[in-house]
Design brief:
The protein is mostly helical. About 80% of the residues lie in helices and about 0% in strands. It starts with a helix and ends with a helix.
């Protein structure tokens, strides 16, 4: 069984156990596994499903920002760069985004 088979098994086990966070991690790993095979549409599907599980409705155990990071990678691979930038932006912590905004303001005001 290859990496993708292991990921599929992980997702099934996690879903059966009702473990949303683990299902999400399995989908994120799956998006990378299929991406390396050049299956970008499948990678995007895994990443979109992970984001949906984490945020619609919000699941606080699964709702870490990493689903948006994986979605951004999959969108970039599909040449959907504007959407990828938005997903990357959502993956950043509010504290870091605020700090980066201040840094950018500082650098452009000099």
């Amino acid at each position: 069984m290859g990496a993708l088979g292991v990921v599929r098994e992980l997702v099934v086990l996690a879903e059966d156990a009702g473990e949303v966070a683990m299902t999400l991690w399995g989908l994120a790993a799956g998006s990378l596994a299929v991406k390396t095979q050049g299956r970008y549409a499948d990678a995007l599907g895994c990443a979109e499903r992970a984001v949906a599980l984490a945020f619609d409705p919000p699941d606080h155990q699964a709702r870490f920002r990493h689903p948006h990071l994986f979605l951004g990678m999959a969108l970039a691979d599909c040449d959907r760069l504007d959407e990828a930038r938005q997903a990357y932006g959502r993956s950043r912590s509010p504290k870091r985004s605020a700090r980066d905004g201040l840094s950018q303001t500082w650098s452009t005001s000099r």
